[in-house]
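Page header: ASSEMBLY MODEL / two components / 540 residues total.
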Amino acid sequence: MAQTLKYKKMIAIYTLWIRQLKRYFRSKSRIVGSLGQPLLFLLALGFGMGPVFQAAGQGNYIEFLVPGVVAMSILFLSVFNGIEVIWDRQLGFLKETMVAPVPRWQIMLGRTLGGATVAVLQGIIVLIISLIAGFVSISSVWQAILVFIFMFLIALVFTALGTAIGSALEDMNGFHLIVNFLIMPIFFLSGALFPLENLPKVIDGITRANPLSYGVDGLRGALGGAVHMGLITDFWILGIIAVVIIGIGSYLFSKIQI
Amino acid sequence: MELLEYLYAGSRIKITGMENIIETNGLTKKYKDFIAVDNITFSVKAGEIFAFLGPNGAGKTTTIKMLTTLASPTSGTISINGYDPIKQQEETRASFGIVFQDPSLDDELTAYENLDFHGMLYGVAKNQRKERIEQMLKFVELWDRRKDLVKHFSGGMKRRLEIARGFIHHPKILFLDEPTIGLDPQTRDHIWTYVKKLNKEEGITVFLTTHYMEEAEKVSQKIAIIDHGKIVAQGTSQELKEKTGAGTLEEAFLSLTGKELREEKPGAIEGMRQRNRMWHKR
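Prediction written out in full:
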């Protein structure tokens, strides 16, 4: 009996994970659609601001920007994937998983891992485009693994955050509020677009409190750029935040009433 | 071998020997300014088919939500297969299966995947899953459409698929919340025949709601009628008719619940669907 239960637990996480993946691969228009924004950022900002950046003695801006834009595509897709809980609640599928004889935190974990995987895949597409265009380069397997680890940590933190928010909300009315007052600031104040050196005190404080700063910093370091906080610090801080947010998200998810 | 049979028989006796598989006592659910379920007490015997009838908005679905761990009661106690749905959620959930009143399929998955994922979540072994899915999809005549995404299905097809999904695993208690709504008489008959067969052959207790009185009368052994959150009568169909002096269950129902029309709470779901389509922009 204990063994069957264990098997069931494993399979609940797997089931929800594979569900997210299937949904992702089926929505081709969404895959292509979500590439628009990052590519626009790379082109407009990268080439537009590049000369100014260079003139200021900061080096190659596109190379600096790529990790930020990869982190951006992961951030947005992660939060949207997490927040999908609200759609599932409104369209009914959530009920089906909520009455299944498996612990709810495992349903949450499966969803979060699935959403995070999808977001990483999207980040990988942006990264591959950047590699092909020659904006950045990866020279060893170890470097690729390091890049992947940071991409996955970013995805995990923000999918769990999206799930937590989605579990606490009843409908999509607060959605724009969340995008404009949470996700946009997280992105713009993370060091994705500008170096974190010599910032005004207030902005410096905000960037240090922002989990994405560590993600972008780690990703930039992994891709061979200059790090601000240090790879080890980035890794631990992101890891701890991921665990905490998954914990909070699981709690909120398990308290959902239909 | 004999010992095994003995133990098996023993376990059977234990199951069927349990008197009430569902019990509620003073069950109440209050929302802000509205009492959806008001102090109801009832019980369902193991192996029974129990019909829970009532007009729209009477509290049927809210009661089912409390019985199935989806909502917590404001007060009162519940026992499902001996478990408390508030404190022993997992054990409770392992005891029942449910067909919901409103849609609960994943539109972006195929018919087959919807059933397969359900089987996986309920721990149905791979071979049995395959076998049951084929059997159930053929049963609701959707086998040819198994590889189609559910979003391309009509309302009736989705309904049939939901019912098929509910039968993939065989629980001790099966909740059917208006399962046959919007289906043609042939399909309805087909489904109720199957429910009766499951009840008889596997001893599954069935808790159903429906607006079709003749269905309730034909299928169930015991009926409870709920109105404005309160149970107004319980008994066999015959007892209810005698009590009200009515010729049919429908007349008995109307005499117990009155003839005024009921309004259901307007759902935000349609609006959500619209926005969902806009958001995903496919």
